[in-house]
Amino acid sequence: MSFPLRVRRYRWSDLDQVWALHQISLAQVGLAPGDGVYYEDDFPRISEVYLADRGEFLVGEVPGGRIVAMGGLRRLDENTAEMCRLRVHPEYQRRGYGAQILELLEQRACELGYSLLRGDTTLQQGAAIELYRKYGWRELSREVRGDAVVLYGEKSLIPVNSGHFIR
Known about the structure:
The protein is α+β, with helices and mostly antiparallel strands. It is 26% helix and 32% strand. The longest helix is centred in the middle third of the chain and has 15 residues, at 97-111.
C-alpha cells in the first residue's frame, strides 16, 4: 500500500525520528553509527549545519506524522553543496519517496545558487546508487573505509549546452 508523502522542512522536534531513521537505514545495509564510515555529529546540530548555512534539510511524512524519508543539503563552498542523509525507511522503500526527496533537494540547490552537487554512498546501498545514476550523477572515486566501499559522486546543476552558439 502506498501512502502520499508530505515533504517539509526539518524542525527541532523531528530529531528523535530522524536519528532513528538514520540508524535503521544504516542497519539495513550492515552499517552502524560510529563504525568509521559515517559521521553523526551533525544530527544534534541540523539547524546550524544545514539550515543556517545556505543549506536545506527535508523530511517526508506519511499520514499520522511518521517520518519515513529525509535528506539534506550542506554547503561545501560558494558553488558546491553536498547532498547527504538521503534515507528512506526500509518499510517504505520502492515507492518513489527517495526520488521525491532527491528531486526537491536538487531543485532547492538550484534556488540557493549552487552549480554543483556532491555526495557519497556505499557499495552496500544499491538502491541509492541506482537512484543517483538515474538522476544523472556520475561516480568520481571509491574509497575503502572500514568494511565498506564508499562511492563519491557529483552532478552538475548547469544545463548542458546544445553545442550551438547563442547570439
